[in-house]
Amino acid sequence: MNRPITLGVIIGNRDFFPDVLVTQGRQDILEVLTERGIGHVILDERSTKFGGVETWQDAKKCAALFDEHRQQINGILVVLPNFGDEKGVADSIKLSGLKVPILVQAYPDDLSRFSLQRRRDAFCGKISVCNNFYQYGIPFSITKRHTVLPKSDPFKADLDEFVAVCRVVDGMKQARLGAVGARPNAFNTTRYSEKLLQAFGISVSCIDLSEVFGRAEKIGDQDKSVTERLEGIRAYVPTSGIPPAAMTKMAKLGIVLDDWMRTYDLHASAIQCWDSLQHNYGVNVCTLMSMMSENLLPSACEVDVTGVASMYALQLASGKPSALVDWNNNYGDDPNKCVVFHCGNWAKSFFGEVKMANAEILATTLGTENTYGTVAGRTPKGPFSYSRITTDDRHGVIRAYVGDGQFVDDPLDTFGSRAVVEVEDLQGLMRYVCRQGFEHHAAMNQSHSAAVLHEAFSNYFGWETYRHEGNPSKVHLIA
User: Fold this and answer.
1) What would the CATH number be for the domain defined by 176-474?
2) Which of 31, 128, 363, 442 qualifies as a FRET site for 228, CA 20 to 30 Å off?
3) pLDDT tens, 247-292?
4) Where are the beta strands (DSSP E) in 278-433?
5) What angle do the packed helices 244-263 and 286-294 form, to 10 degrees?
6) In a 3-state reduction of DSSP, which class is residue 156?
7) Which residue, 388, 389, 355, 387, is CA-closest to 372?
8) Which CATH topology does 6-173 take?
């Protein structure tokens, strides 16, 4: 998450347009990238005419430069200070072999400076560049305004969104997920295809709970690592009323999980949170999962691997922790509100006040003494994004849905990790979720990131992705 984003920059040019436009365009975009802390790889002004790309020879030089820096480049920004050369731009990217997101920007003309000395025609040139990308089969993104100045607020907003798309695409293509334990037998909903995920670069490593319990039980109660881990847990969340024996078990479990994730360089985990843990080890793993998610190592319940992939994607988009939730309860008679819930593993940044508790629902069958370790709290009002990735094995594809809403402060008297959310045309969304065979779990984030995920999933991965925008007539698949 802390890796800086670097963009390959192509300045398009056509020789019968004024040279000053290229020079100014280069200066403008580099100032904006520097201002926003974005790295860049761009042709030197001496390598080609003013560092622009126009000819086949220019394209080869640009492609070679991008290829040299391919490990750094997360996306490509095409800047058109004038009409630009459509083939030069497209050939640069094709020759580089890079498969990264691309954003196309074009300068607007100034009607008060519409002479031969200042005329740009980038409005038209952008269409030609995009046409070539389409012919070459190169996916790309475009600014919300067809022409826009690089130093303007609308373009800076486009750039920030594009950088988030780059983070999602780059991160998901290299995602390493951990599956801890077997899927609970009662949950067919968390079945998934490792092979479909692997086709997009998302790999899964597995460990059996017996290995986890065995390693944990070999750690002495007085071991220094246990003492340090206990201090970390107590600093993270109030633990009043939690038995010391349960706290020690949690500490040992956390040590084993951390070591395993470091060994395999895992970015996220999905854990069998019930009921083997309670029967055979005697605690809930929720607090440890909450701590991982808070530290941007998202962790999901019930071995929901595609659920934690959804969490990770939202985290990449926003830079904030994600949580896995059940679409759980209606909220009275309000058709656009519902309760989202889980026993208690959400990152603590989702809460105002927070404490460690026990899983009250699980305790009814597994015993209170075996279910300590949940994180209980209520999410205050604020932005809400949701997402769900699923592997549709019947059709051999990955599908997803995304959307934005709001956390609201309406009264809610219950336990666990909980929130009330408001989503426009929630009933239409629920019909879509049910008819399309999605799971009852969804990932959520304290942001509005639906546009970023929709662009990344549908445009750059080719997943069938539905973006819910609160209009019943739009409830259909958007490829």
Assistant:
1) 3.20.14
2) 363
3) 999 999 999 999 999 999 999 999 999 999 999 999 999 999 999 9
4) 299-300, 322-331, 334-342, 354-358, 372-378, 382-392, 397-408, 417-422
5) 50
6) helix
7) 355
8) Rossmann fold (3.40.50)
